[in-house]
Design a protein that fits this description.
Helix content: 10-25%
Structural class: alpha+beta
Number of strands: 12
Radius of gyration: 18 Å
Shape: globular
Distance between the termini: 44 Å
């Protein structure tokens, strides 16, 4: 297991300070605010720790309310909304400096047999044939907005092996193309068998690249290039089937719309053997600097 993954696992191991109240810390990010995927994953950890182990997360719906301060702890308060015979619902509010910065609703379910069908997995190359972030990112050093961005990007993604199938937005600046993007990802090391950990890790990664598809439609390079300003607004995920975040997952992303200073991304995440594991939808602020 990599040192970076150890650090990320420590980040997700929240401190319980009272019944249904947890405290988390942050890690440095490319931008001077807490990474949205971190807050979402930590909030799901907090919710999951108040739910019986036999009930797995099947969905989450979240709003990013304020930018998080990476230098201050985040307090997560869990509200036990409902404990039914099959489903459990939790609401989590993340607070910093006395103000809510994030709100999450999550639902958990006892496993049931039922009807089965799924969308087919799209074609994609073997992830082992694609370059790693450390191999790919230095190629675009001249595209980024300042010194040291490549090193900070590599450091920010060191816990996760994330590989682009096609050119990323910062690789085709000024060349609008179909708003679709694919990446393969898995953690840089094996994880424990706890299903909640794998769901939380996928939640963390899901915020890394989904809005890339918005940028592709307009030939924009992204946040690291400096030709757009953006932030996540809301995020929703549905967990359909069991998966492991330490095994390859295909993140197939597209953007059906951008308007009003916002861009929408939607995606499906498949296991390498073709099972549809997760559906994701996210909207974010996407503004052109004036």
């Amino acid at each position: 297991m990599s040192t970076a993954l150890d650090s990320l696992l420590d980040l997700l191991d929240l401190e319980q300070i009272e019944q249904d109240i947890f405290r988390g810390t942050s890690r440095s990010a490319l931008v001077p605010r807490v990474f949205g995927g971190q807050v979402a994953a930590q909030a799901l950890v907090a919710a999951g720790r108040t739910v019986p182990a036999e009930r797995s997360a099947h969905s989450l719906h979240a709003y990013f309310l304020r930018a998080g301060d990476p230098g201050a702890p985040i307090v997560y308060t869990v509200d036990r909304i409902r404990d039914g015979r099959s489903f459990t619902t939790r609401r989590v509010v993340a607070v910093q400096h006395g103000q809510p910065i994030f709100h999450l609703s999550a639902s958990f379910q006892t496993y049931e047999d039922g009807l089965e069908h799924q969308a087919d997995m799209p074609a994609a190359p073997d992830p082992e044939t694609l370059p790693t972030a450390a191999e790919m990112l230095p190629r675009y050093a001249d595209r980024f907005s300042g010194p040291g961005v490549v090193d900070r990007l590599i450091e920010a993604r060191a816990a996760v092996d994330l590989r682009y199938v096609d050119e990323p937005p910062f690789g085709t600046v000024g060349e609008p193309r179909e708003p679709r993007s694919q990446v393969w990802f898995r953690t840089n090391g094996k994880l424990a068998d706890d299903p909640l950990l794998h769901v939380c890790m996928a939640t963390y990664v899901s915020d890394m690249t989904l809005l890339d598809s918005v940028l592709l439609a307009h030939g924009r390079g992204g946040w690291a290039v400096g030709d757009v300003v953006g932030a996540s607004l809301d995020h929703a995920m549905w967990f359909h089937r069991p998966f492991r975040a330490d095994e390859w997952l295909l993140y197939d992303q597209e953007s059906p719309s951008a308007s009003g200073g916002r861009g929408l991304g939607q995606a499906r995440i498949h296991t390498q053997d073709g099972r549809l594991a997760i559906t994701v939808i996210q909207e974010g602020v996407v503004r052109v600097p004036r």
